[in-house]
Amino acid sequence: MTEVFSGLATGFSVALQPFNLMLVLFGCFFGTLIGALPGIGPINGVAILLPIAYSLGFPPESALILLAGIYYGAEYGGRISSILLNVPGDAGAVMTTLDGNPMARNGQAGKALSLSALASFIGGTVAVVLMTAFGPLLAQFGVGFQPSDYVALMIFAFATLASLVGANPIKTLIGAVLGLMLATIGVDSNTGVMRFTFGVPDLLSGIDFLVVVIGLFGMAELFHLVEQQARGAVKSIPVDRTFVSWADILYVRWTLVRASLIGFIVGVLPGTGASVASAVSYGVERRMAAPDDKMFGQGDRRGLAAPEAANNASAGGAMVPMLTLGIPGSGTTAILLGALLMFNITPGPQLFSQHPEIAWGLIASMYIGNVALLVINLPMVGLFARLLTIPQHYLTPLIAILAFIGIYTIVGNPFDLYMIIALGCMGWLLRKLDFSLAPVILGFVLGALFEDNLRRALSISGGDWGILLSTWESYLLYALSMGVVIGPWWRGRPRRRGEGAADKA
């Protein structure tokens, strides 16, 4: 423990230098703006700033502090468009739309924004504290995960999907299957077989995740607004002056604790990321709330706090394997790993002893950055909420511009512009049929991870399916999956018995 405090003292002496402190603040602010733009996300923000930081000759610790500030600032800022426009800024913000946007439409945009800001702060702070205390130990646990264990983790994530639309699990299942089907489009990397390409060359490499997100959410929201305008059913959304209260904080206090822990643990596992963390935490929270979960999907504070705490906690968790073992925990930390290698610094177990100013400086900057994000964003809640006053005939082209520019500048293929229109029509139709779009997105994300790891596990075992039950980690995850599915039904038995007795009487 003495080494930890000594390392933190070294880190804060680096992070509190005026130049590095300025980079923390700039990274947090710029990252928030990037996260608020649909489709950009933290990985692209870090990729854009990396060559600039390198070409300006920043010291390694300063460059990493700037890029890390953009990373968790973007995770923090993804909530803005998710809550106000129902368009997630990145994959980790998909779950935020489920209850954040209904709160805004119910006249609680200020409360939703401030609650998500607080949840993000708590999730990020819990993550950096745990990273400081238990980082190396958890990294060893995460790197020990075998492909069969990842299969069990994906099954656990799919089990939590059942709680996303509790009133109609069949529609949830259909949505997840649609996402899995979208994930299989393209050339199979193992067999070379073309799957669902229909002879279109642009589909050989599959569909980019950003295309799916912007199409199903951004363009579907655009078509919904156009339909409302054509029918004359456009409603003005009231701009409120609500703000998160102590009662709100006490109401979600255990939600924040659970989601922060789940987000950090999932973030430590390489290759999972904020989308899996937010999905699992939301599903677990709804299952724990059953049968008192009627408001989930309609503006429940727990449904907003859980994914917001989890996605920021996962950002901190993803730093653990990168710093301690040199293994990126997410796409964004892979870029941060590349940044270290550009400066001829090798991450791994020796990083803390050979370059303490980099490792501990980064950790200390995360403490400062979380506070800075809260200070920067809370006073701006009213300004963000006033975006809802933009007339819908201006909001419609704004969403279209963000969607088309965001996709074309990142993907660079004109075919993808037609693809987001097609997916937008699909998303609009699903909304008309009262489907939730979140299971489709999560089926798409988890499907690719599930297939890759299942193939690896079976390749290792020579086709023996028994490998899926070969470790205690997989048994634990399967048990948790069964608990997630069976638990709410088991807890609801006394209520059902009471209702049955009342009916007989």
Plain-language structure description:
This protein is an all-alpha fold and 505 residues long. It is 74% helix and 1% strand. It has one domain. The longest helix has 35 residues.
How many strands?
A: 2
Strand content: under 5%
Task: Report, as a whole number of angstroms, the end-to-end distance.
Answer: 64 Å
- Name the structural class: mainly alpha
Biggest sheet, spatial arrangement of strands: 1-2
Could you state the order of secondary-structure elements as H and E?
HHHHHHHHHEEHHHHHHHHHHHHHH
Low-pLDDT windows of residues: none
Question: Quick gist of this model?
Answer:
The chain has 505 residues and is mainly α. The chain has helices at 2-15, 18-36, 41-55, 60-77, 79-85, 96-105, 109-143, 147-161, 169-183, 209-231, 246-251, 253-268, 274-289, 301-325, 331-342, 351-354, 356-377, 381-385, 392-411, 414-432, 438-461, 472-491, 493-504, and strands at residues 186-187, 194-195.
